[in-house]
């Protein structure tokens, strides 16, 4: 590849990392509490509210069932309202964030459900409030699993960010489509795939390392 293409590849990698990082941070701020609510409002839990839990679970399932490529197109008016445009990295972050929120919620729910019920019961017996149980028992006990699950979400966002290139979302996907596929440049396509593979490997390694260090077992 030419020096110009290498520069574009590096620029696109930066855009992808930026998109995924910002989307993941925003989605985690909403998705982690969502996962906590899905667990704690279920039957026989510390904040039991079955009706609310069922409605919340239905909304989460509904959003998760929409394919990402359809979600991107469907919320273009919302994207324009939020960031003022429907193309580019800023625009791509809107559907990425919306898609990640319910995914994170379900992943966090899975991790929290693995916490030993006896630990929660012991905290309740000592008079801990629901918020104290969430902050001092549930989240600390499940933190390793949560990190591992969030790693999976990050990898999913890397793939989705590449898909966002189909509608001018920027990043590696946009590079692969505009400079690789449309110009019949197999070398650009191959380079993009290799960079994506390396990026995913790095994310997975980092996530596994952090999860292992935080594992109390």
UniProtKB/TrEMBL annotation:
CDD domains: TM_PBP2 (cd06261)
Topology of this chain in the membrane: Multi-pass membrane protein
Compartments it resides in: Cell membrane
Main location: membrane
Superkingdom of this protein's organism: Bacteria
Cellular component GO terms, alphabetical: plasma membrane
Membrane spanning residue stretches: 16-39, 51-76, 82-105, 188-211
GO biological process, one term: D-methionine transmembrane transport
Keywords (A to Z) from UniProt: Cell membrane, Membrane, Transmembrane, Transmembrane helix, Transport
Coiled-coil intervals, chain numbering: none
Ranges where the ABC transmembrane type-1 domain occurs: 13-207
Protein family: Belongs to the binding-protein-dependent transport system permease family. CysTW subfamily.
PANTHER family, sorted: ABC TRANSPORTER PERMEASE, D-METHIONINE TRANSPORT SYSTEM PERMEASE PROTEIN METI-RELATED
Record's protein name: D-methionine transport system permease protein
Species in which this protein is naturally found: Propionispira arboris
């Amino acid at each position: 590849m030419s020096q110009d293409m290498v520069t574009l590849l590096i620029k696109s990698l930066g855009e992808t990392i930026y998109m995924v990082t910002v989307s993941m941070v925003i989605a985690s701020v909403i998705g982690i509490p969502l996962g906590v609510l899905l667990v704690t409002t279920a039957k026989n839990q510390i904040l039991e509210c079955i009706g609310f839990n069922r409605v919340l679970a239905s909304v989460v399932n509904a959003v998760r069932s929409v394919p990402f490529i359809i979600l991107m197109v469907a919320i273009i008016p919302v994207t324009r309202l939020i960031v003022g445009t429907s193309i580019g990295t800023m625009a791509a972050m809107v559907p990425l964030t919306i898609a990640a929120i319910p995914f994170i919620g379900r992943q966090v729910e899975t991790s929290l459900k693995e916490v030993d019920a006896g630990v929660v019961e012991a905290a309740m017996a000592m008079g801990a409030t629901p918020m104290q149980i969430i902050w001092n028992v549930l989240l600390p006990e499940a933190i390793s699993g949560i990190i591992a699950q969030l790693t999976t979400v990050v990898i999913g966002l890397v793939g989705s960010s590449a898909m966002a290139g189909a509608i001018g979302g920027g990043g590696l996907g946009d590079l692969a489509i505009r400079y690789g596929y449309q110009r019949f440049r197999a070398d650009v396509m191959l380079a993009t795939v290799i960079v994506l593979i390396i990026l995913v490997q790095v994310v997975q390694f980092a996530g596994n390392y952090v999860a292992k260090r935080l594992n109390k077992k």
